[in-house]
């Protein structure tokens, strides 16, 4: 059996150099923005200068991270927020991250199912992104995608993380405002506590408040919040807000809280601290990635060291230093 | 893992990290067609072949689907249609692709599509039609072949 696929050689587009895409990105061309995000994801060397140029035009957008366990209602909430922000005249950008299969490297990116109507009616830019093996709740190129959207004039830019488990809180150092979403009835405890992400929230939202078990979750969370202090060095009071994305109830209150937090960051000067921590984390993260890439490229050298470590003629620390081209003294 | 056949990115486009980043496919249902079993099966087949699959849900207009495909920068729109309305829907899809300057995106059709409609669909811009009884490897190779012919953009 064969597929019906007559060949049509001449129809296809050629590679547009990334430098030529930059002006179109800056003027907000959806095609150019979308292509530039793909180039960042693929890590084309050819695109690095263009991305550097784009970065110079960023720093305007309010970046909002939404995190919570799978099924909490993140995608549905993002759809509701798109509408709420758009009705205030905002041009909303979204990057929604889902995991890649560790077996095939492929992925099914399903967040868009819930957002497509909102994206269409509000002219929001929604991009689905697979983790491609990156841990921490984001994809490696998530923040570059945010850069591209920022430079193209989108704000706010909402990041939906992979459903978090322990340690998957990279978004904390990626966004200005962190919304932790908990769903009622997903077990006795509040999932945010289990996942160890209670403290990272600037705003706690409880989804599905159209359901009768929601008030208990809200009460439990409010109880927890009175126990501990907020972020060190900040006088922001973390609110606990019930929302229903389905009925639309209280979504605008959540939107207002997100805006209030942004104002707070700017008025208090905390924005500067967040920007510094985002910058630091991005440098560290990229450095680590570049090293990993280098090690993976120099397979032969790596193998030699692995062999030496396995046969106990060299210890792992020395091997690591040799790979880095550093002297042993660094360890001292 | 991912496909390795195609890598013609044109002048000066050297890959730093991921020479063969996964093929991206939007799996779409067009119009009033509630048969979504096939679309979900196809999504899994493509995922297991190393592709990144964006699923957009039921009851989408050609315009919705093209807008989504542009933002997602997919290589292929894979449409699953069992309702019998494929002729007008694919014609409209082709028109939206031209209108949004997105003709670089391939269109692959599957579902219940009688052979006598193949030529008309091809004229509307459908690049490949996979027969309903096709095994999963034919679905995968059909898509890979299209990308291989074009190269990455
Ligand atoms: C199951 C089924 C239903 C289920 C659907 C459940 C669901 N959620 O999907 C229910 C009972 C709801 C249903 C309802 C109806 N159905 Co019905 N249904 C079927 C049936 C028996 C099987 C379809 C199926 O799921 N197959 C299993 C999947 C896995 O196979 P598949 O979809 O063909 O997909 C495979 C390939 O085609 C291919 N493929 C599919 N899509 C794509 C896309 C791409 C890009 C690629 C590469 C490959 C590819 O890969 C898949 C995996 O191998 C077909 C009969 C048939 N021969 O197909 C009728 C059929 C599709 N139904 C039909 C009809 C008429 C209806 C109704 C209108 C009946 C009515 N009068 O109420 C309603 C319409 C509902 C609606 N809202 O659209 C007709 C359509 C007639 C036509 N096209 O001219 C069919 C053909 C039956 C018939 N012979 O009359 N149906
Ligand atoms: N009743 C109710 N259900 C909701 C609400 N928000 C989301 N859901 C449902 O919760 C499920 C998971 O939603 P989804 O947004 O995909 O969650 P995610 O995995 O966190 O992105 C879906 O079945 C939604 O329909 C809500 O406000 N009320
Ligand atoms: Mg989701």
From TrEMBL, chain A:
Residues 60-204 form the AAA+ ATPase domain. It comes from the Bacteria. GO terms for molecular function: GTP binding; GTPase activity. Keywords: Chaperone, GTP-binding, Hydrolase, Nucleotide-binding. The keyword Protein biosynthesis does not apply. Signal peptide: none annotated. Belongs to the SIMIBI class G3E GTPase family. ArgK/MeaB subfamily. This is Methylmalonyl Co-A mutase-associated GTPase MeaB. The lineage of its organism: Bacteria, Pseudomonadati, Pseudomonadota, Alphaproteobacteria, Hyphomicrobiales. The gene is meaB.
Automatic annotation (TrEMBL), chain B:
SUPFAM superfamilies: Cobalamin (vitamin B12)-binding domain. GO terms for molecular function: cobalamin binding; isomerase activity; metal ion binding. PANTHER family: METHYLMALONYL-COA MUTASE, LARGE SUBUNIT (PTHR48101:SF1), METHYLMALONYL-COA MUTASE, MITOCHONDRIAL-RELATED (PTHR48101). Keywords: Cobalamin, Cobalt, Isomerase, Metal-binding. It holds the Pfam family B12-binding. NCBIfam families: acid_CoA_mut_C. InterPro entries: Acid_CoA_mut_C, Cobalamin-bd, Cobalamin-bd_sf. Residues 22-153 form the B12-binding domain. Its cofactor is adenosylcob(III)alamin. This is Cobalamin B12-binding domain-containing protein. It comes from Aminobacter anthyllidis.
């Amino acid at each position: 059996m064969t597929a019906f696929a007559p060949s049509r050689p001449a129809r296809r587009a050629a590679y547009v150099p990334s430098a030529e895409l930059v002006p179109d990105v800056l003027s907000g061309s959806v095609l150019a923005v979308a292509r530039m995000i793909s180039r960042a994801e693929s890590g084309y060397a050819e695109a690095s200068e263009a991305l550097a140029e784009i970065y110079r035009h960023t720093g305007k957008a309010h970046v909002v991270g939404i995190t919570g366990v799978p099924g909490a209602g993140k995608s549905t909430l993002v759809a509701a927020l798109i509408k709420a922000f758009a009705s205030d005249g905002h041009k909303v950008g979204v990057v929604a991250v889902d995991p890649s299969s560790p077996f095939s490297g492929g992925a099914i990116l399903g967040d868009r199912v819930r957002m497509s109507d909102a994206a269409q009616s509000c002219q929001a830019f929604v991009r689905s992104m697979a983790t491609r093996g990156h841990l921490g709740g984001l994809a490696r190129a998530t923040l570059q995608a945010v850069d591209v959207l920022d430079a193209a004039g989108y704000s706010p830019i909402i990041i939906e993380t992979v459903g978090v488990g322990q340690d998957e809180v990279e978004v904390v150092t990626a966004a200005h405002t962190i919304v932790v979403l908990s769903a009622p009835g997903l077990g006795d405890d509040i999932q945010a506590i289990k996942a160890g992400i209670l403290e990272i929230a600037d705003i706690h939202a409880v989804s599905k408040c159209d359901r009768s078990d929601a008030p208990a979750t809200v009460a439990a969370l409010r109880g927890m919040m009175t126990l501990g202090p907020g972020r060190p060095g900040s006088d922001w009071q973390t609110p606990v807000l019930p929302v229903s994305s389905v009925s639309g109830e209280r979504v605008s209150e959540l939107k207002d809280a997100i805006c209030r937090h942004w104002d707070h960051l700017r008025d208090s000067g905390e924005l500067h601290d967040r920007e510094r921590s985002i910058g630091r984390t991005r440098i560290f993260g990229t450095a680590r990635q570049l090293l990993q890439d280098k090690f993976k490229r120099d397979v032969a050298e790596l193998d030699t060291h692995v062999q030496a470590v396995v046969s106990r003629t060299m210890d792992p620390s020395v091997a690591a230093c040799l790979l880095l081209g550093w002297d042993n003294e660094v360890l001292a | 893992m991912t496909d390795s056949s195609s890598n013609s990115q044109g002048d000066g486009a050297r890959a730093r990290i991921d020479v063969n980043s996964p093929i991206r496919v939007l799996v779409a249902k067009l119009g009033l067609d509630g048969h979504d079993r096939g679309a979900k099966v196809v999504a899994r087949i493509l995922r297991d072949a190393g592709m990144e699959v964006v699923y957009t849900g039921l009851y989408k207009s050609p315009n919705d689907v093209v807008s989504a495909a542009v933002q997602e920068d997919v290589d292929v729109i894979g449409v699953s249609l069992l309702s019998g309305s494929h002729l007008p829907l694919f014609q409209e899809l082709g028109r939206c692709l031209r209108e949004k300057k997105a003709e670089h995106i391939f269109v692959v059709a599957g579902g219940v599509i009688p052979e006598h409609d193949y030529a008309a669909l091809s004229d509307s811009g459908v690049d490949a039609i996979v027969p309903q009884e096709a095994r999963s490897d034919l679905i995968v190779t059909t898509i890979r072949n299209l990308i291989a012919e074009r190269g990455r953009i």
